[in-house]
Amino acid sequence: TVIQVQISNASVMFIRLSNYIFPQKIYFFLSPLVVLNISKYYHVSPAPGAVRLAHTDIKIPDFSEYRRPEVLDPNKSSQESGDARRAFSYLVTGASTVVGIYAAKTVVTQFVSSMSASADVLALSKIEVKLSDIPEGKNMTFKWRGKPLFVRHRTEKEIAAEEAVNLAELRDPQHDKDRVVNPKWMIVLGVCTHLGCVPIANAGDYGGYYCPCHGSHYDASGRIRKGPAPLNLEVPYYEFPDEETVLVG
Amino acid sequence: MAASVCRVGSTVGRSLVKSRSPILLSLRRGQASVSYAQSLLGAPETRLTALDNGLRIASEETGQATCTVGLWISVGSRYEREKNNGAGFFLEHMAFKGTKKHPQSALEQQVESMGAHLSAYTSREHTAYYIKALSKDLPKAVELLSEVVQSCSLNEADIEQQRGVVLRELEEVESNLQEVCLDLLHATAYQGTPLGHRTQQNLTRHDLVDYINSHYKAPRMVLAAAGGVNHEELVGLATDHLSGLSFEYEGDAVPVLSPCRFTGSEIRMRDDALPLAHIAIAVEGASAASPDIIPLMVANAIIGSYDLTYGGGKHLSSRLARLSVEENLCHSFQAFHSAYSDTGLLGIHFVTDRNNIDDMMHWSQNAWMNLCTTVTESDVARGKNALKAALVGQLNGTTPVCDDIGRHILNYGRRIPLAEWDARIDAVTPKIVRDICSKYIYDKCPAVAAVGPIEQLSDYNRVRSAMYWLRF
Q1: How far apart are CA B377 and CA B308, in angstroms?
Q2: Of B41, B220, B329, B337, which sees the most CB atoms within 10 A?
Q3: Which residues are in the Rieske domain (chain A) (predicted)?
């Protein structure tokens, strides 16, 4: 009788006896809380010359190499260690579930966030302006997010004049200090709030901007004073990372 | 006409009820009747004496013309080692092949001339030899019993001949698939331990003699009798015949039973040629002397049993039985509890065809879960009544009573009277049933044994997952 032993990658052992006569397939399985999914398959054949095959001939295989230490001794009841073994199994299962969910979430977010804006696009969203290039009284225009950005270095006289303006006169009342972070620098979007033309700097009746399309006059704070435009020039978000630069966006 | 009869009938009934006398309602008015409680207390007391060598003698005297007397010995397949596996079973066969004083034909003649029956059985933890005879033949019966146990001849020729008989008997058991299934269940549940032992064949006379010498000791034996027996007479007979029983072990090697490890596991013997599948699922249960036995017996009574011959149909009380009828789930099922001295198997065995195995297993485990979580007052009341009825009903003869006495003395050291069973059963509440069942069943690894066309039986992991409910 030839005995072949095969160990597959699923850690299942097949023990085959050739010359098997009996068509019955008999297999054994040990509870996963004692061992992890080990099955052994027997094709049982009677020894040559044996009269009959009875169920008493079937020998339960020895699973000792797979058992947990608490249940190795056949003369010790398995009840006492039951709670501890179950707790361990459930703990491992619970921890694996948590880790698994986190891993799945990570993979999914990585794939979903790959559809959001790429780095080069995001890079265009901010602009850094070197303030020392702009002399006093001068307004410089930059292209930012597809729109003109006005950075105006205001003089003391302009600042004082804008702060003294009576809000009741304004179509869109806003105090100057609400429109600037640092009063010396006035940063607004150069888009007329009427129909979107680009106003001309240092023009108009109020010492600010003048929109040539329909005649809207803005002051040095970018507020609408005369003309068809309804709102003040939009103030974007900006901050001063240091004295010399402003980061807009 | 029918309406007026009904009216009269209901009026009579109402007036009887109003009078509040149960006797008046009884159809057996005028006849003496003993209530259940009275019958419990009226049972004769079991008297227990011990001889000097440790042999215990117990008897229940009921004044009948017949009696059963026997020797119950606490030895069984569990006490065997690998080498002498099967000795007890073999010995049982050899016991009636003649003693030193009476060769086989003489022994048979003695027994038959009394008109008596001589039988024996072995189980995993007990062996019994008993005689059913007329009460007046008690002395002869005890003498024969003592000979069978103490001076069995065990000659070689008989041993060889009996070997063939034992083999044939084992072959015959093969066709009793229920036995095979339950045997496999023990083999897998108690794998590697003596309780999982199977029988072996190549035993010699020396093995059998060894077996007798190491296990047939007086402190482990009980001489039990029931029927028209007088206790003093019985004690006298025992002193005459059985005081020679040894009580010392060779080399002081007292066999001590070590605990047997239960392993949650399964064994599947698939044979698609068989028409029906026999499947048993069991968890480790309570030992015979454990107080948890009573709630577990009540729980088993709630699940009950069923087979195709039951006429109740969908009006059967057990939910599983009702489902078996309505959904054609199985041919039969029974809830069982095999209790041993320090462990037990609590389970359900069912027989079904190859296409209903999955459903039947699902509903069986569902019944278990129901016991652990939501069993109701009415279920428990029904179970208690069924259990009490079963306990009382099975004591219907001198032999069952004698067996009861023998086993009780071996398991508990005393005979537990029916009144005590009754009181203990009454003390069971639904909460106790839920707690005890959860302790033994809920989220425990079961042992599963299956024989026949069992392809549909689900994977062990699925069976294991059905041992708890996520909804709880």
Answers
A1: 28
A2: B329
A3: 156-247
Do the Cβ atoms of B327 and B424 come closer than 8 Å? no
B269 interaction partners in chain A (CB closer than 8 Å):
24, 26, 55, 58
Residue B40 identity = L
pTM tops 0.80, yes or no: no
Q: What is the pLDDT of residues A148-169, one digit of tens each?
A: 999 999 999 989 988 888 889 8
Kindly report, residue by residue over B35-83, the tens digit of the pLDDT. Answer: 888 888 888 999 999 999 999 999 999 989 999 999 999 998 888 877 7
The model's confidence at residue B26, banded by pLDDT at 50, 70 and 90, is low
Residues in chain A, overall count: 249
Per-residue tokens: B147: 């000979």
A33 touches chain B (CB under 8 A): yes
Residues of B in contact with A74 (CB under 8 A): 191-193, 260-261
CA–CA separation, B367 vs B272, rounded Å?
Answer: 28
Read off the pLDDT of residues B343-399 as tens digits, 9 standing for 90 and up.
Answer: 999 999 999 999 999 999 999 999 999 999 999 999 999 999 999 999 999 999 999
CA angle B357, B359, B363 (to 5 degrees): 115
Task: Give, in order, the Cα–Cα distances in Å from B241 to each of B92, B150, B223, B237, B249.
Answer: 20, 10, 11, 6, 20
Eight-class DSSP state of B58? E
ipTM: 0.79
Q: Does B47 touch chain A (CB under 8 A)?
A: no
Reading across the β-sheet that carries B447-452, which strands appear in turn?
A3-7, A13-17, A39-43, A25-30, B265-270, B447-452, B277-284, B344-352, B332-339, B305-307
The shortest C-alpha distance from B440 to chain A (Å) reads 10
